[in-house]
Amino acid sequence: MKSITTKNAIVHFNSKVYSELSSYIKSSKPSKIFILVDTNTHEYCLPKFLSQLESEDIVVEVMEMPEGEDHKTIDICTGVWEALSEYEADRKSLLINLGGGVVTDLGGFVASTYMRGIDYINVPTSLLAMVDASVGGKTGVDLGVLKNQIGIISEGSMVLIDTSYLETLPPNHMVSGYAEMLKHGLIFDKGYWENLVNFENMDISELDKLIYDSVIIKNTIVSQDIKEQGLRKTLNFGHTLGHAIESYFLGNADKTPLLHGEAIAIGMVLESYLSTKVCGLSTDEFKKIKEGILKTFSKVNIEKRDQDVIIDFLKHDKKNSHGKVNFVLLESIGKPKIDCEANNDLILEAFKDYNS
C-alpha cells in the first residue's frame, strides 16, 4: 500500500512499517527511545515490535500504563513525565506509542508537552486507533469522565499501521473501531458506507483496503482544516451525544462502561434521527442508517432518567460555542452539515425512537 502523507507526518502500512522506522531512526539519531505500552499491548504486541525494532545500539526503555479509558488521565501523564525525567530523556529522545487510542492520545500529549515537545511515533494496535485516534494530531486526556477535555493538536513524525496486530484484539474492540469507519462513510462517501454496511458479505482479506480508505478519508478532511475551524468538525458526527453517553456510562457505578465505538454507534443513530427533523435527511436513508448500525451494535437500554443526565453532559462538549450545543448532522448520506442546533425535546424524541 502506498504511504499517505499528512500535513506534517506520514502514514506507512504493513510491509513498509519496520523498514521505514529503521530508516527514520538512522537519520534522526534519537538520544534514547522510549516505548509506551499498556498492560495488554505489553503482553501481546511488544514482543513482536521489539523483534522488528532496529535501534542502532540506542538505549530503549519501556514504560507501561494501565489499560482502559478510565486511565486516560493527567495523573497517568504525570507518571509518564516523571519516568521520562528519571530515565534522563532529553529533547532528542523519541517516544513510540504502541497501543490503542488511549495510548496514542495520552502518549502524543505527553510527548508534545515534555520539555515543550519531543518527537513521537504512533504504532496503533486497535482498529479504532488505526482508522481514527492515531491519525490527525489530536492528543489529550479526559477530565474526570469528560472526554478529551485537556489536549493539543500536534502530529507525530509517523504513524505505522501493521494490521497483524488486529489478531490480538477481542471481537468487541474490533466492532468498536468499525463504528468510526461507518462514520467516515456517512460523512464523506456513500459508496464506502454501502461497502462497510454489507461487510458480512465481504472477504475478511478486504479489511486492509477498507482501513486504508478510512485513513484516506480522515486525512483528506484533516489536511484541509487541521485546527477544526470548519470541515474537520464533520468528523464529530455521532460524537456530541456519543461522548455524552460514553461519559455517563463511564462515571455511573450502576452502568457497564461502553467502548468508544459502542457509544458513538448510539450517537450516530440518535443524530441521524435529529437529521431528519433539522436537515431534511430522508426517512428512507435514516432507516438504512439505523438498521445498518443496529445489525452490528446491540441496543443499549437508556432510560428516561439516564437521558436527562446525558443531555446535561452536552454542555461540556468541545464543539459548543456561545452557550449553544452544536451538532454535526446529515442532509443525506455522505453530505454532512456542521453547527446545527436541536432542542432537548427533539433529543428526547430521538431517544424514544432509538428505544422503540
UniProtKB/TrEMBL annotation:
<keyword id="KW-0456">Lyase</keyword>
<keyword id="KW-0520">NAD</keyword>
<dbReference type="Pfam" id="PF24621">
    <property type="entry name" value="DHQS_C"/>
</dbReference>
<dbReference type="GO" id="GO:0005737">
    <property type="term" value="C:cytoplasm"/>
</dbReference>
<dbReference type="GO" id="GO:0009423">
    <property type="term" value="P:chorismate biosynthetic process"/>
</dbReference>
<dbReference type="InterPro" id="IPR056179">
    <property type="entry name" value="DHQS_C"/>
</dbReference>
<dbReference type="InterPro" id="IPR016037">
    <property type="entry name" value="DHQ_synth_AroB"/>
</dbReference>
<dbReference type="GO" id="GO:0009073">
    <property type="term" value="P:aromatic amino acid family biosynthetic process"/>
</dbReference>
<keyword id="KW-0170">Cobalt</keyword>
<feature type="domain" description="3-dehydroquinate synthase C-terminal">
    <location>
        <begin position="177"/>
        <end position="320"/>
    </location>
</feature>
<dbReference type="GO" id="GO:0046872">
    <property type="term" value="F:metal ion binding"/>
</dbReference>
<protein>
    <recommendedName>
        <fullName>3-dehydroquinate synthase</fullName>
        <ecNumber>4.2.3.4</ecNumber>
    </recommendedName>
</protein>
<feature type="domain" description="3-dehydroquinate synthase N-terminal">
    <location>
        <begin position="63"/>
        <end position="174"/>
    </location>
</feature>
<dbReference type="InterPro" id="IPR030960">
    <property type="entry name" value="DHQS/DOIS_N"/>
</dbReference>
<comment type="function">
    <text>Catalyzes the conversion of 3-deoxy-D-arabino-heptulosonate 7-phosphate (DAHP) to dehydroquinate (DHQ).</text>
</comment>
<dbReference type="GO" id="GO:0000166">
    <property type="term" value="F:nucleotide binding"/>
</dbReference>
<dbReference type="Pfam" id="PF01761">
    <property type="entry name" value="DHQ_synthase"/>
</dbReference>
<keyword id="KW-0862">Zinc</keyword>
<keyword id="KW-0547">Nucleotide-binding</keyword>
<dbReference type="InterPro" id="IPR050071">
    <property type="entry name" value="Dehydroquinate_synthase"/>
</dbReference>
<dbReference type="InterPro" id="IPR030963">
    <property type="entry name" value="DHQ_synth_fam"/>
</dbReference>
<keyword id="KW-0479">Metal-binding</keyword>
<dbReference type="GO" id="GO:0003856">
    <property type="term" value="F:3-dehydroquinate synthase activity"/>
</dbReference>
